[in-house]
Design a protein that fits this description.
By secondary structure, the chain is mainly α. It has 7 helices and no strands. The longest helix has 32 residues. The termini are far apart. Helix 2 crosses helix 3 and helix 3 packs antiparallel against helix 5. It folds into 2 domains: 33 residues; 97 residues. Keywords: Signal. This is DUF2780 domain-containing protein.
Amino acid sequence: MQKHLLRGILSLSLCVAAPALLSAQSLGDLTKSAPSLSAITQPPAIGNVTETSGGITSLLGSKLGLSATQKPGVSGAVTDFLTKKSGFIGTAKTDPTSYMSSFKGLQGGLFGKLKTIMTVSQYAKFLKLKPSASSAGSSLLGNLFY
């Protein structure tokens, strides 16, 4: 009788404690997946959008051999990207998860536009121009990748 009572109490306590343990575990998993303030590479300051866009377009023009026809399209896409990014770049320090969510969507749109403007070879070269995380702040192209 005493064994059955002990088993019943143990079973009841597991039933009561299990949801709390599962919730704590789930919360732990969520916090592990959220980037910390130091987990993301801080994006470079954009500065003047028109100047930064012009510098990026000029750099891409020389590195990728962009034609006179391609340059306005690249410039427009980059300017639009930088203008939108400047609206939420401050969240990179205060809310990295929100920043990464906004940035990835915006970057996907930019890269999609660039694919339609550049040749396959130029686009492949462009992707290889991604600066390292440690040099992102000192590279104009860091604005497009971080």
